Amino acid sequence: MIDWIVIIGLALVLVAVGFWVGLRLAGPTVNETEIGRVSLKVTPDPGSGVTAFIPVADWGLRVEAFSSLFGLDAELRSLDRDSLGKIASGDRAIVDTIADQLGSAATRTIIRGLAIGFGVTLLILLVATLLLGGLQPRWGLLVSGAAISVLLVVLSLGAARVTFDRTAFSSPTYFASGDEIGRILEVAQDPRARTRFGAEFGSILRGISIVLSREAPEAEPYRTMFLASDFHGNALVVDPVSEIVGDTPLFLVGDLGQRSLGPEIGLIAPRVAALGSRVLAVSGNHDSAALMRRLASEGVMVLGRDGKLESSGQYTGSPTADVEGLSVAGYPDPLEWQEPLDLPDRPITFKDFDDTDAARAAALGEVIAWFDGLDPAPDVVMIHQNELAAGLAEELFERGYDRDLTILTGHNHRQQVDRYGNVVVVNAGSVGASGVFGVGRDSAGLARLNFDMVLPRLDAVDLLSIEPLSGQAQATRIVISAMCPGEDRCTATPTGAVIVTPEETGQ
Fold first, then answer.
1. Residue 66: other Cβ atoms inside 10 A
2. 268 and 345, same domain (yes or no)
3. Residue 181 lies in a domain
4. d(Cα 448, Cα 429) in Å, to the nearest integer?
5. What residue spans of 27-91 are helical by DSSP H?
6. d(CA 150, CA 38)
7. Of 359, 358, 312, which Cα lies nearest the Cα of 333?
8. pTM summary value
9. Which domain holds residue 49?
10. 181-224 pLDDT per residue, tens
């Protein structure tokens, strides 16, 4: 009995060592794709997902695409600029081709790495068995170690397959200097790309806006404003959005860039300012204090805890702004980067903290305390992260908050309207379609907010979703009073689904 405990314990140690050594020895595979030459390597890093790095440009991204006992590192060794230009102009075919090529290469690399790890492990087990001849039964270490190795491979591949989330690639975490991000964003300046995308986008947006305008009862005019979020530096949407928005106030709720430092600031700030003649913004978790100061100098009204941000970095005046008679307050994202230099391990989401729940709870507590300190209470609040927006709405609902309040949010790229009694939370999705690389794959979202002409009450929301290169577009009018008759809480989506959440569930 004692020998078996020793054997199994030793086998576990040797298997761990064998796979660690084996994956290191396996090294990378080099794969030719439409975007360029890509190196892929399996790493013994549990839960690390996919990490991609471009060594020449000194930037990369992390994606929690799967959770397993290994990770996958990728390096772009060469870049095909023609292909990059096609991606920026919305060539869906090349995006699909690259995705298929990388998927097949990743599968081959993972199987190869695990196979080499298995072989090295068996060799180590065999040597240990021969050296430790006194262990009984004689071949117990080799047999038990081989069985554990097989189980490890099966569990690793199974976990990767079950947890794989392709949509995670739409929201990567960027790291390093960001210089190449700036250069990539410049691809969108190609007049051919901008003209093709902009013309289609603008045409569709004007068409569905006209339809929705005709649906509005002429006897009930509204104070109309627009909501957008998650611009992610996508220059392709600037012209068509600015044409539609015009002089109408535009609330821009965070994630304006990717890393929001260095050359990226100079490219993004003028584009954000050009989205409308009156833009009000708050930061998101992908944004930096430096970007927000530059936006203020470009004429964007940047709202913070203590007032409006000046280009000097100081907050002045009242913490609320008057927009068409509505009192508007904005909360800067808790993860807005404050330092002048970037760091590879800079936290982008609450998952980057050792205790995710504690970090999120602390941030929500600060949001609630900030709101409670506003006097008088605002009519509209801008908060980038939808979890924090929902948390504030939940807290106010539980208190029996009896004022009309609209909370504008984004972050998760999903269009949705939530009602918590008198509190309404609106998410317009991503106006940047996940950035330049999302063109041709993701829809760009925008929301038109229709407020009562006298009361500070949101009467209706028009959710607009457009993917012009495929011709797909959708417009949904959500009338707040008709969302969930007889109920205080519910969620409405562009598909027409209304999910009622009974008060007693506390969810």
1. 21
2. yes
3. no
4. 12
5. 81-88
6. 29
7. 359
8. 0.68
9. 2-170
10. 444 444 444 444 444 555 556 666 666 665 555 455 444 588 99
